[in-house]
C-alpha cells in the first residue's frame, strides 16, 4: 500500500520537478497556457468561424442565410466594388466603394480620434500629476464624461446639433461651418461623432498616461534641475522616454476600440450618413440578410485591426528595448 502511495506521489511531483528545471520564460508560458487556451476558445474560434462563413454565398431568399462554397468571391466583390454597399462617403473615381466609404471612415476616425485624445489626455495627465488644491475634484470632472453610457453621450450630441433645437447647430451654422441639417450631412456628422468621441474618451487616455507619469522616479527631475536642464529638456529626455511604453499601450487600446466604432454613429447620425466597417456588418445583417458578405466585412475589419496591433507591438518592443 505504501509503495503505491509513493509511486503516486512521485508521479504527481514529476511535473513540478520538470518546471523547476525550466527557464523563467518557459515557466511564464506554462502559467499563461490556461489564459491562452481560454483566449483561443473565446476569440479565435469565432474569428475562424466568421472566416469560414465569409467563403460561402449569400442566400437572401432561403431559410438558411448561407449558400454554397464560393471561396474568396465575397472579398473580391468588396475590394473591386462589385458588392452593393450603402452610400459613399467620398466620391473618388480611383477607389472602390468599400475603400471610399467604410474603410476610409473607420481609419480616418481612428487616426484623428486617437491623435486628439492622446494630445488632450497627455495634457490632462500632466496637470493631474501636479500638486495643487482641488486636484481631486479636477480628476472627478475629467472622469465624468468617460462614465457616461454611449447612448446618453450620443443623445447629448444629437440634441446639441439638432437643426431645430440644438444651440450648437445654430452656432455652427451662424459662423458658416455647418449646413442647415448637420446630422444628415456626411462631413458634418463625421465631425460631430469625432468630437463626441474625443470628449468622452480623452479621460481614458489621461488615466493611463497619469499612471505612467506617477511611476517615474521624481529624483530624476531633481538631478536634471540641479544640472541646469530646462523644463522642455526634462520633458524630452526624462518624461517622454519613460512614459512612451504606457503611452503606446494606451494608444493601442484606443485604436482597437476606435476601429470598432458603431454605437456612437448609429445613435447620433446613423450608419447611412457615416458608414463605418462595423456599420456595414450590421446593415448587411439587418437590412439585406447578406450574412456571408457581412462575415467578409467583419473579417476584413479584424485583419486591419490585427495589422495595426502588430505595428503597435513592434513599436512597443522597440521602445522598451531603447530603440529610437
Short description:
The protein is mainly α. The protein has 14 helices and two strands, in the order ααββαααααααααααα.
Layout of helices and strands, plus pairs?
Elements: H1 2-20, H2 24-54, E1 56-58, E2 66-69, H3 73-80, H4 97-100, H5 102-128, H6 135-147, H7 150-160, H8 167-174, H9 186-213, H10 219-226, H11 231-259, H12 263-268, H13 277-286, H14 291-320
Antiparallel strand pairs: 1-2
Keywords:
single chain, 324 residues, mainly alpha, two-stranded antiparallel ribbon
- Overall form: flat
Order of helices and strands: HHEEHHHHHHHHHHHH
Largest sheet: 2 strands, antiparallel
**C-alpha end-to-end distance:** 65 Å
- Please state the oligomeric state of the protein chains shown: single chain
Mean pLDDT, to the nearest integer, reads: 82
Name the strands of the widest sheet in spatial order.
Answer: 1-2
What's the tally of helices? 14
Low-pLDDT residue intervals, each spanning 5 or more residues: 91-95
Q: Over all CA atoms, what is the radius of gyration?
A: 26 Å
The proportion of residues in beta strands is under 5%
| Share of helical residues | over 70%
According to DSSP, the number of beta strands is 2
Structural class: mainly alpha
Describe this structure in words.
72% of the residues lie in helices and 2% in strands. With 324 residues, it is an all-alpha fold. Strands 1-2 form a two-stranded antiparallel ribbon. The longest helix has 31 residues, at 24-54. It is flat.
Amino acid at each position: 500500500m505504501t509503495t503505491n502511495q509513493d509511486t503516486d506521489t512521485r508521479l504527481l511531483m514529476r511535473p513540478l520537478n520538470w518546471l523547476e528545471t525550466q527557464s523563467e520564460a518557459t515557466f511564464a508560458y506554462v502559467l499563461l497556457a490556461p489564459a491562452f487556451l481560454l483566449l483561443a476558445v473565446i476569440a479565435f474560434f469565432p474569428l475562424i468561424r466568421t472566416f469560414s462563413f465569409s467563403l460561402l454565398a449569400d442566400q437572401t431568399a432561403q431559410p438558411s442565410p448561407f449558400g454554397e462554397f464560393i471561396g474568396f468571391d465575397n472579398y473580391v466583390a468588396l475590394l473591386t466594388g462589385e458588392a452593393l454597399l450603402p452610400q459613399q462617403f467620398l466620391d473618388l473615381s480611383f477607389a472602390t466603394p468599400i475603400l471610399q466609404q467604410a474603410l476610409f471612415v473607420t481609419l480616418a476616425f481612428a487616426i484623428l480620434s486617437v491623435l486628439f485624445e492622446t494630445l488632450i489626455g497627455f495634457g490632462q495627465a500632466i496637470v493631474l500629476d501636479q500638486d495643487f488644491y482641488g486636484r481631486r475634484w479636477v480628476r472627478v470632472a475629467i472622469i465624468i464624461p468617460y462614465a457616461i453610457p454611449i447612448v446618453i453621450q450620443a443623445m447629448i450630441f444629437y440634441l446639441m446639433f439638432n437643426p431645430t433645437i440644438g444651440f450648437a447647430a445654430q452656432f455652427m451654422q451662424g459662423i458658416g461651418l455647418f449646413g442647415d441639417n448637420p446630422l444628415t450631412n456626411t462631413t458634418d456628422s463625421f465631425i460631430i461623432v469625432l468630437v463626441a468621441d474625443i470628449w468622452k474618451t480623452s479621460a481614458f487616455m489621461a488615466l493611463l498616461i497619469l499612471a505612467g507619469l506617477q511611476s517615474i522616479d521624481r529624483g530624476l527631475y531633481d538631478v536634471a534641475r540641479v544640472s541646469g536642464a530646462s523644463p522642455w529638456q526634462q520633458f524630452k529626455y526624462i518624461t517622454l522616454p519613460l512614459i512612451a511604453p504606457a503611452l503606446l499601450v494606451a494608444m493601442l487600446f484606443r485604436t482597437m476600440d476606435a476601429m470598432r466604432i458603431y454605437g456612437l454613429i448609429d445613435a447620433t447620425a446613423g450608419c447611412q450618413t457615416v458608414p463605418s466597417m462595423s456599420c456595414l456588418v450590421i446593415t448587411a445583417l439587418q437590412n439585406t440578410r447578406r450574412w456571408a458578405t457581412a462575415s467578409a466585412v467583419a473579417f476584413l475589419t479584424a485583419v486591419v485591426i490585427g495589422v495595426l496591433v502588430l505595428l503597435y507591438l513592434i513599436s512597443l518592443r522597440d521602445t522598451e528595448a531603447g530603440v529610437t
